Amino acid sequence: MAPLDDKKDVPMFSDYPSEIPKIQCGASLDTDTYKAYPEHNEALGFPGELIDNWQEVAIAKIGELAKKNRAFQVYLDACVKCGACTDKCHYFLGTSDPKNMPVARQDLLRSVYRRYYTFAGKYFPWLVGARDLTKEVLDEWYTYYHQCSQCRRCSVACPYGIDTAEISMAAREILDTVGVGQKYCNEIIAKLKKTGNNLGLNPKALRATLEDLEEDLEDETGIPVKIPLDVKGADVLLITPSADFFAEPHIDGLLGYAKVFHSAGVSWTISSYASEAANFGMFIGSYENMREVSWRIRQAAKDLGVKRIIFGECGHAWRVGYSFLNTLAGPFDFLDQNYPIPQHILEFTLDEIESGNLKIDKSKNDEHIMTYHDSCNVARGSAMGPKEGGQFDVPRAVIKAVCNNFHEMERDSIRENTFCCGGGGGLLTDDLMDLRIKGAKPRMTALQQVTEDHGVNKMAAICAICKTQFAKVMPKYGYDMDSIMSVHQLVANAVILDGQETDEADPAAAEETP
Amino acid sequence: MISTVYAVLFYLATFLMVAGVGMKVWKYANTPVPLNIVVSPAPRTKRGVVFRMFREVIFFESLFKSNKWIWLFGYLFHWGMLIVLLRHFRYFTLNTWWWVEIISPIGKLMAFAMLAGLLGLWARRIFQERIRYISNPSDHLMLALLVGIAGSGTLMSYVTHTDIINVKAYMLGLLRFQIGEMPSDPILMLHLGLVVILMIIFPISKLLHVPGVFFSPSRTMVDNAREKRRVSKWARNLPPLPEGIPAKEEA
Hints:
The structure holds 2 protein chains of 2 kinds. Chain A contains 22 helices and 7 strands. Chain A is mainly α. In chain A, α18 (390-402) packs parallel to α22. The longest helix of chain A is centred in the middle third of the chain and has 19 residues, at 203-221. Chain A is globular, with a radius of gyration of 23 Å. Chain A starts with 37 loop residues before the first helix and ends in a 20-residue tail after the last helix. Chain B is an all-alpha fold. Chain B contains 12 helices and no strands. In chain B, α1 packs parallel to α9 and α7 (137-158) packs antiparallel against α9 (186-201). Classes of the chains: A mainly alpha, B mainly alpha. At the A-B interface, α2, α3, α5, α7 and α9 of A face α1, α3, α5, α6 and α7 of B.
């Protein structure tokens, strides 16, 4: 960790991760994200610009969504305003803006629903806080529904499980439907539809990138480890976030997967057609777009004739993969039914570790004193392994199998109570940097506690968005940008390939895992 | 006259409540759940979900974990109200059931738990700035209504006893569609009038959390998305997506 000498750039840590601020109305009213250009909206099947009869269309859309989605309908009705969620959102804790309290965020839309769809709201609007849908309300939706990372921490706190993510996704879909899209998400989805990944990387460029990485691997290990692309007949199709091809510390994770597949002796491939695990269709609440993005994975798997699909380290992609893929792009009856469909790379790696197929030298990670950040979509929107809570235990089991030093952060900030990194849900854009820094405060405070108590200097994560977000905001809190690591980066450090010369260390140090 | 007005009100309120809540339940049950959105960690079996929901409804487990004060007041209020309500069976049954006899003494005391819970919740709504911020007039009125019902009931139990024998006779009559004589005691009239209001607003207010909790997909779904496909009717009617990969546009 870097010394905290450059204090002026360092935001204030809280005394403890979930410290509750006094409310400051309008504190983040001016934090707005760029709107999409018409071509981005149109590529997704939405009107390019705000349509003339937007009010009518938006109101009708509320009714349509309430008919299509039970969660939306029930959540609009059932809230009793008990207040249990009010201190659970990291953006509220970071910004103090009361409209970032989950219930207040829901009420931005609920107030309009009440006005047009409930008896009380139609005849006694003042009594139940019902509001007409005006342009100001629409703008407010745009602002505050883009200050929600859909992390679901509030849903865990709610006595009825009301999930603000569902409301926020619906709100974004309504906004898209009237022609008000967000640039970051919609531009990326448009790019994916064109090239197969969020970056707009064409197959040629992707191949060149992967070949470079293969060279790096060979330089490091002396072994020709492959990162195959578009190999027909491979056993495994790896679907991984495109950030794994170019960003740090993501790449190191990809090298980890390659080493594990190599050691396991499993033939695998990446697809240039579905070279993206991320599915921003979820962030904008669009079933149709999410389905279209998922469909590419099915087509790639069929085209390449693989037997299994494995997802790389990506949070919301794993939620879509685990919870939605079967519904959106299934049935996957053409894959080998003896494996979970899809499987997470951590499930695969843990299996390999437990069956003793990997040679591991834990001491290679001795310089790292680790903690683990549960990514919100993995923690609360998916699972791993055969047991309830596997999404918490599998990553930890892998980390502990390859590292000697591991410490947990505060209980209220991990597992199902984990705080979002501050950049999830389609907010990982520079125009929201201020919000991202503030939203990271609870997590950074929890990290600082374990740094003080146990000397923790690295935090591992299994989400491309978390990794990018932390690499960017950690320096603002006085940590080096490489304090965030991929879990498979730790695996890559510790795995010793067959025939790999272990420099200076005597071979006995490389113990076989039990 | 009063007897007839209250009789009509009671029949009307009962009809509105049953029909209104019934319609809402029908709507919830028939609205599709297009994706598995259970909040994990979640049970992997139906039995597990039943156990999860049992803990939620009986112990308010999530609320306990998220806010101890709201849990305490909410728990006092809801359980107080439940026991008090069960005790009220003695006014609707000719021969009081044995278990109603047993809980009756506790039921009388539980009115205070109910009131304490309500006042605690109300105090938080007034003094806790975050909850004050999210409160609408209706949220205060709902508490006022419940405090009114509990307060007037407690008053009749402990201070100015009403002619309970005749109240019971009147109620038993209503159950047999015979309108008898209701004692014209102002506190009783207030008590019953507020109950009628509560019944009428039940299906058009936040009291919908009662059926709603059983239809909340984030809690009631089984964590089995990898095994079980669920395509809702409207999703099945979406235009099919093209099979195969379009010819490579490699530069």
